[in-house]
Design brief:
Blueprint (H helix, E strand, L loop, with lengths): L20 H8 L3 E5 L2 E4 L1 H20 L3 E2 L5 E3 H7 L1 H4 L5 E4 L5 E4 L4 H11 L8 E10 L14 E11 L2 H22 L3 E5 L10 E7 L5 E6 L5 E3 H7 L15 E2 L3 H11 L3 H4 L2 E8 L5 E9 L9 H4 L11 H8 L22 H13 L10 H11 L15 E16 L1 H5 L3 E3 L5 E3 L1 E8 H11 L1 E2 L2 E2 L10 E5 L6 H16 L4 E4 L5 H11 L3 E5 L1 H5 L2 E6 L6 E4 L3 H5 L1
Parallel strand pairs: 3-7, 22-23, 22-24
Antiparallel strand pairs: 1-2, 4-6, 5-6, 7-8, 8-19, 9-10, 10-16, 11-12, 11-16, 13-14, 14-15, 16-19, 17-18, 20-21, 24-25, 25-26
This protein binds adenosine-5'-triphosphate and magnesium ion (3 copies).
The site of adenosine-5'-triphosphate has 14 residues, from β8, β16, β19 and α15.
Family: Belongs to the class-II aminoacyl-tRNA synthetase family. ProS type 1 subfamily.
Subcellular location: Cytoplasm
Keywords: Aminoacyl-tRNA synthetase, ATP-binding, Cytoplasm, Ligase, Nucleotide-binding, Protein biosynthesis
Length: about 575
């Protein structure tokens, strides 16, 4: 590509509304532009990297034997009603009507659509196992879209869904996907960890998240210095040896983390998908005057707002909590949003919004033996306490008895899941087995945030001058910067020659033939993060050399013109 004919939309200034480095650099390097909150256009430079990420994902998925499909982004409500998620899925689900008044949504995920497809297409155990994937645009109406494409509303995901006759077969494909994800992230050239994730809310079976390590990550991941143990913090806390936990105080004995059944009941009750997105649910059951136990306090940790909780689902159970203003919440709950309790008895208390942290806190408090009701800390104080109360701390022995625990920040870039028969039961996705008996299929699902990977790679690989791309996903591998080529035919010619030579050898090359000052060109190529750079100048050519600098190198070096290609290889 010739830079003079290419949209090099670099910016000097750091955009004011970009909080994290990858967002700033993606804007400054001219990779993306914002259209509206959580909606981004990929400019040519950004799209090149996105496509390279996609290509690696495709190659490895194909290698694993998965088959590519492409499902519609827009999905009919009927399927979601069948699975129960039309009412359960919270405000992240973008719902819409067509001209005939029929309900649709813009897919945040595709379990329903694939289950519908496969129940029609596959009828015999002989066709199993089968794994289908797509690379496709998802929409999630994130409550707080932020950090550019890192947490966007419209984003690109690779999602795969596998179908099985039995659990053993699901286990095999799950392991295969685990290995495939490792191969993918290895090829990206990123420092990542696969960690056990808490699958409690979705079902008893396994789940792993893949995290790119970066200090700006939104998740805490815990790993052992002495073994392969690695888990996200929720999971690590769930299995922390009881010896490391202070005994609960007397009055907390009735506080229980609910089992799967309770979570499902609560999902039904509140009209949200607690099974899918709520990470921690704390229910305090307390006897009323008649000795019946009931819901007293409920803390959801997830992306739900009070508005999403359907009034009609609460009717007859408790007073609807569909109010939106702080005053109304305070009135109903008995405390300001952003603080906890004392709670109104017999009313489910839904602590929401920025209270994701508070929910964390309450759960910490639970484990540490503090009583939920009657506590009324202000938000900041509560957050401070939360830090003190973290159950898993660095230096703890690990659950498997080997080494000590280290806590790092991670960015969730992939998530694989044994779904079991949750969706296949709801949607009656069955096959005939060897004996001609109808059996419900087991399912696995495997998500990978293609567009988020681009941002995560930058979080992990940058310096004060800009992005430092790993070779495999760089928009261009080599930059050729010609100096004053418009005045020097020798330079122009040597630049063209090198450009052709490297392209023919299979490199993605950007020839910076713009009529800009050398300093501007160097700064742009560094900002964009191209791994290898050759400078073609009159002075160099006179000595028969090009100047080479790797993006990570401190020093430049001269390379004989004829040796440019072997030098790269
Ligand atoms: P998060 O915890 O960050 O909200 P998630 O657990 O809701 O992610 P999954 O349902 O597991 O996401 O989706 C699979 C993958 O899609 C995630 O691992 C992540 O890489 C990517 N992803 C999810 N939400 C977004 C988003 N809003 N913007 C970009 N990528 C996303
Ligand atoms: Mg999410
Ligand atoms: Mg997550
Ligand atoms: Mg996830």
């Amino acid at each position: 590509m010739r830079a003079s004919r290419y949209l090099i939309a670099t910016q000097k200034e750091t955009p004011a509304d970009a909080e994290i480095i990858s967002h700033q650099l993606m804007l400054r390097a001219g990779m993306i532009r914002k259209l509206a909150a959580g909606l981004y256009t990929w400019l040519p430079m950004g799209l090149r990297t996105l496509r390279k990420v996609e290509r690696i994902v495709r190659e490895e998925m194909d290698k694993s034997g998965a088959q590519e499909v492409l499902m519609p982004a827009v999905q009919p409500a009927e399927l979601w009603e069948e699975s129960g998620r039309w009412t359960q899925y919270g405000g992240e689900l973008l719902r819409m009507k067509d001209r005939h008044g029929r309900d649709f949504c813009f897919g945040p995920t595709h379990e329903e659509v694939i289950a519908d497809l496969i129940r029609n297409e596959i009828s015999s155990y002989k066709e199993l196992p089968a794994n289908f994937y797509q690379v496709q645009t998802k929409f999630r109406d994130e409550r707080r879209p932020r950090f550019g494409v890192m947490r966007a509303r419209e984003f690109l995901m690779k999602d795969a869904y596998s179908f099985h006759l039995n659990a053993e077969s699901l286990n095999e494909t799950y392991e295969l996907m685990h290995r495939t994800y490792c191969a993918i992230f290895d090829r990206f050239g990123l420092d990542y960890r696969a960690v056990q994730a808490d699958s409690g809310a979705i079902g008893g079976s396994a789940s792993h998240e893949f995290h790119v390590l970066a200090s700006s990550g939104e998740d805490d991941i815990v790993f052992s210095t002495g073994s392969d143990y690695a888990a996200n913090i929720e999971k690590a806390e769930a299995v922390a040896p009881s010896g490391t936990r202070p005994a609960p105080a007397e009055e907390m004995k009735e506080v229980a983390t609910p089992d799967q059944k309770t979570i499902e009941a609560v999902s039904q009750l509140l009209g949200i998908d607690a099974t899918r997105t709520v990470k921690t649910l704390l229910v305090k059951a307390e006897a009323d005057e008649d000795g019946n136990s009931g819901l007293v306090a409920l803390v959801l940790r997830g992306d739900h707002t009070l508005n999403e909780i359907k009034a009609e689902n609460l009717a007859g159970v408790a007073e609807p909590l569909t109010m939106a203003t702080d005053e109304e919440i305070e009135q109903a709950v008995g405390c300001k949003p952003g603080s906890i309790g004392p709670v109104n008895l017999n009313v489910p208390v839904i602590v929401d919004r920025s209270a994701a942290h508070l929910a964390d806190f309450v759960c910490g408090a639970n484990r540490e033996g503090f009583h939920l009701t009657g506590v009324n800390w202000e938000r900041d104080a509560a957050l401070e306490r939360m830090e003190d109360l973290r159950n898993v701390v660095e230096g703890d022995p690990s659950p498997d008895g080997k080494g000590t625990l280290e806590i790092r920040r991670g960015i969730e870039v992939g998530h694989i899941f044994k779904l079991g028969n949750k969706y296949s039961t709801a949607m009656n996705a069955t096959v005939l087995d060897e004996n001609g008996k109808t059996v419900i299929m087991d399912m696995g699902c495997y998500g990978l945030g293609v567009s988020r990977v681009v941002a995560a790679a930058i979080e992990q690989n940058h310096d004060e001058n800009g992005i430092i791309w790993p070779d495999a996903i760089a928009p261009f591998q080599v930059a050729i910067v010609t100096l004053n080529a418009h005045k020097s035919p020798t330079v122009a010619e040597a630049g063209e020659k090198l450009y052709e030579q490297l392209r023919q050898a299979g490199y993605d090359v950007l020839l910076d033939d713009r009529k800009e000052r050398p300093g501007v060109k160097f700064a742009d190529m560094e900002l964009i993060g191209i791994p290898h750079r050759f400078v073609v100048s009159e002075r160099g050519l006179a000595a028969g050399t090009l100047e080479y600098k790797g993006r990570k190198d401190a020093e430049k070096q001269d390379v004989p013109v004829a040796e440019a290609l072997p030098f790269l290889v």
